[in-house]
Write a structure and sequence with these properties.
By secondary structure, the protein is an all-alpha fold. The protein is built from 15 helices and 2 strands. It has a two-stranded antiparallel ribbon. Helix 3 crosses helix 8. The longest helix is centred in the N-terminal third of the chain and has 32 residues. The termini are far apart.
């Protein structure tokens, strides 16, 4: 990391000796239109995919938390797709969303609908990658399921005695009790989404997709380092990205004080109040 910070102040093509250029790489980054496009694609992807993954994985976890015959089989079925990630996942969905012979458009033709070009259409490419990201909700489902099963049953029994229905119990008991789990998945999901690379690299064959609609930030960084041989500029992009992720994570942590509930905080608050009295 220290070496990459030093390289960010140089012009180095991986072959010739590095030349010190000061803050020139950082100045170029703030006026680079391709960098602006990659940042836009990445932020839009993160802003859409993370909430969708959070809601869907939590909904599936609530369904998988019921006690019915064969529930372990359904949990396994939902979890298994999360084992197929990275390049294998990208290759799978290239076939699924192929406009000519893909599974999705094939099913749409059966009902008389001509599907879009998906990954080959600038208006649909990013939305298609967002859909691809929902393939692995089973991983977060397991984490939510562990949090749901850790909630004391006495809380639901007391709420039932007070006349609370299922939705009221969900809002006032379930969600507050698992809010630390939601917070964990949101933070890790945000960091993972910001670092999206494989989908853009494999789907677009190291390009940016139609009209750079899949030019993710990390893909643009990679291209500068290993396609354009601008390692100094790529190092500057990496450090800018590092600061961005740190700021976003800090904002999420700061906002967690308003909605994340920790059981251990309540006794401490009472103890401080009694001591002050």
């Amino acid at each position: 990391m220290v070496y990459s910070l030093i390289l960010s102040f140089t012009d180095w093509n991986l072959i010739d000796p590095a030349e010190f250029v000061g803050f020139a790489n950082y100045a170029e980054a703030f006026s680079d239109p391709d960098l602006g496009q990659s940042l836009k694609v990445t932020l839009v992807y993160a802003a859409v995919s993370v909430p969708l993954q959070t809601v869907l994985s939590l909904a599936v976890a609530l369904l998988m938390n019921v006690k019915v015959r064969g529930i372990h089989v359904f949990r396994t079925i939902w979890y298994l797709p999360s084992l197929v990630t990275g390049v294998a996942q990208a290759v799978l969905f290239i076939w699924v969303f192929n406009p000519s012979y893909g599974l999705v458009n094939g099913l749409l033709r059966l009902v008389g609908v001509e599907g879009p070009r998906w990954l080959f259409d600038a208006d649909w490419a990013l939305a298609t990658v967002v859909i691809m990201s929902l393939w692995t909700v089973g991983g977060n489902m397991i984490i939510y399921l562990a949090g749901l099963q850790d909630i004391a049953k006495e809380l639901y029994e007391a709420a039932q005695i007070d006349g609370a229905g299922r939705w009221r119990s969900l809002w006032n008991i379930t969600l507050p009790q698992i809010s630390p789990v939601i917070f964990f998945n949101v933070v890790t999901g945000l960091i993972y989404a910001m670092q999206t690379f494989t989908q853009g690299y494999v789907v677009t064959h190291n390009g940016g997709g139609p009209s750079d609609s899949l030019l993710f930030y990390v893909l643009y960084l990679y291209n500068n380092a290993f396609s354009f041989f601008r390692m100094g500029y790529a190092s500057a992009l990496a450090w800018i990205f590092f600061v961005m992720i740190m700021v976003l994570t800090a904002l999420v942590f700061r906002g967690s004080a308003f909605w994340v509930y920790y059981e251990s905080q309540r006794p401490k608050a009472r103890k401080r109040g009694a001591h002050a009295g």
